[in-house]
């Protein structure tokens, strides 16, 4: 019995995403494994004071975890990172939406946003020290500054690229400005919003440790500085590994949420 090609094709297409996911998962793990292997080989040619191997880093991380030093430091770092990231989101999303949809606001704010965005974030540290001191408020301020402008640019681009025909259809059916925003603009902009959130969360992790190194040395930044003084490269690299894993975990979490919400997008279904 022959199988109609029109019937067989959807079945084949349905099987493709699962195969793609399995392949992606294998490559994901393989890339990390290859990177660790290369690191181990390179580190074998140097003293552990210069470049600790992955095994030495894992051992040092385990020691820091058992002593409680690493969990306490990480919890302290996450406090100002999360608060700064939330504040950046509360600023970037509405401002970006307004810039993308209102020409007057875009013309007014776009030069300012781009001028400030062009300045390296670390250059704001002296001003932050003057305005907010050296401690918690200063660390939160640096996280906000390092996140908010990247996010504004991405959100405004998404709002500006929303389908004008859909917006026109909403107006023709008598939708209010709030209804058009809630039912058309925000769903249309969701891919850009999630991109902004992923960029922002990586910048927040970056800002979290930058603030602790350039301002008062506390939490993870304090561990890194003390380890550098002791020539303990395993501890320094261990903190860097923790930061990498934290950034990767947060990005994957946001990608998972995006796939759950943006189910209409090709390749985004779970």
TrEMBL record:
GO terms for cellular component: plasma membrane. It holds the Pfam family BPD_transp_1. GO terms for biological process: transmembrane transport. It is found in: Cell membrane. Residues 74-258 form the ABC transmembrane type-1 domain. Signal peptide: none annotated. Gene3D superfamilies: MetI-like (1.10.3720.10). Its main location: membrane. It is a multi-pass membrane protein. Keywords: Cell membrane, Membrane, Transmembrane, Transmembrane helix, Transport. InterPro entries: MetI-like, MetI-like_sf. It comes from the Bacteria. The chain crosses the membrane at residues 26-52, 72-100, 112-134, 140-162, 234-257. The keyword Transmembrane helix applies. Belongs to the binding-protein-dependent transport system permease family. This is ABC transmembrane type-1 domain-containing protein. It comes from Azorhizobium oxalatiphilum.
């Amino acid at each position: 019995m022959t199988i109609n090609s029109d019937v067989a094709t959807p079945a084949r297409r349905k099987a493709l995403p699962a195969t793609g996911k399995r392949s992606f998962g294998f490559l994901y793990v393989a890339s990390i494994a290859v990177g660790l292997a290369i690191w181990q080989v390179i580190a074998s040619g140097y003293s552990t004071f210069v470049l600790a191997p992955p095994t030495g880093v894992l051992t040092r991380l385990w020691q820091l975890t058992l002593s409680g030093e690493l969990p306490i430091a990480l919890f302290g770092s996450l406090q100002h990172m999360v608060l700064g990231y939330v504040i950046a989101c509360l600023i970037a999303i509405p401002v970006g939406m307004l810039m993308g949809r209102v020409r007057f606001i875009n013309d007014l704010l776009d030069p300012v946003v781009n001028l400030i965005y062009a300045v390296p974030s670390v250059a704001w540290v002296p001003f932050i020290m003057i305005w907010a001191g050296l401690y918690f408020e200063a660390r939160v301020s640096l996280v906000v500054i390092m996140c908010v402008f990247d996010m504004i640019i991405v959100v405004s681009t998404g709002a500006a690229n929303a389908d004008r025909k859909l917006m026109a259809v909403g107006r023709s059916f008598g939708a209010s400005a709030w209804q058009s925003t809630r039912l058309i603009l925000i769903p249309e902009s969701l891919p850009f919003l999630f991109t902004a959130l992923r960029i922002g969360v990586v910048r927040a992790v970056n800002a979290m440790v930058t603030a602790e190194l350039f301002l008062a040395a506390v939490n993870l930044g304090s561990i890194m500085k003390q380890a550098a003084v002791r020539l303990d490269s395993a501890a320094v690299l261990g903190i860097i590994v923790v930061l990498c894993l934290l950034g990767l975990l947060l990005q994957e979490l946001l990608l998972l949420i995006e796939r759950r919400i943006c189910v209409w997008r090709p390749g985004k279904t779970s």
